[in-house]
Design a protein that fits this description.
The protein has eleven helices and six strands. It is of the alpha+beta class. Strand 4 and strand 5 form a beta hairpin. It starts with 12 loop residues before the first helix and ends in an 8-residue tail after the last helix. The N terminus and C terminus are likely disordered.
Amino acid sequence: MSSTRTVAKPTSPASTNTNTNTTAPSRRGSAWLREPLLHFLLIGALVFALDAWVNRDRLDPRVITFDAVVDDEARRVFRDARGREPNADELYALRRVWLDNEVLYREGMAMQMDQGDQAIRDRVIFKALSSINAGLKAPPLSDEVLRAWFEKNRVKYDEPARFDFSEAVLPEAQPTEAQARALASQLGSQGGGEVQAGLRVFKGRPQANLLQSYGEAFTTALTAQPPGEWRAVRHGELWRVMRLEGSSPARKAEFEPLRETVVQDWTDAVMAEQRAAAVKAMAMKYSVRHREVAPAAAQAASGTRAEPTQ
């Protein structure tokens, strides 16, 4: 295939110089716009600007942001310790603990307490808290104040009603009412002879512990039954075979024998209140924001994966 080429006419030196000066900068500019280095710098600047906008809260040391990831971790820790999900009040308390720790951490960093161990968050928090403890001072304590505090917190010192009881455990994981009543009747007629059931013995369980473990209905039925008798007692959807062995009544505590213990407990409580107030005062310097996290981002942060819906 032939090509056509246009040959320019010779020009004078003056005209040649004029053309060269007007066209060269344009060509150099076009070449510079095509340089890969320029593209890289522009993209880098754009990414930096986007990152700064997304993380704008983190760039402000006076802004604390907690999101669903924090709540998820708090729920996991609570669930591992208690075996259930926290209620609204408990979740709020967990958030307060996290916020207090975050405030202490930032204050510790501001006071350069991270020197030598920047990566150890707990160590920095401990150092910041130690600086607060060093400034705490218990107020003067009078006998009247101490006795009033004792009465207000009497539940800590009164001896609760306690119960001894046994449970006969059937081989079935979830026995029916008929099976539970049959076992109770068999145990009662044999006077404690050999039966096909395991035996659990509980000693000195306080009533508050029974209420927390079994609920009000079960606790009322167990504590009301005559000692020494096996009975089938309903516990939610389950049936248990129980025998009340004995009980001891509640007793009110006397102040004087416990005076030294009450003084120490009062001191600990007052110091805890002062410590909480000091951390709260620090927290006033920060703006706390709650950022909602998309489900996918929360799952990625917690290491879980959502199952696809059918």
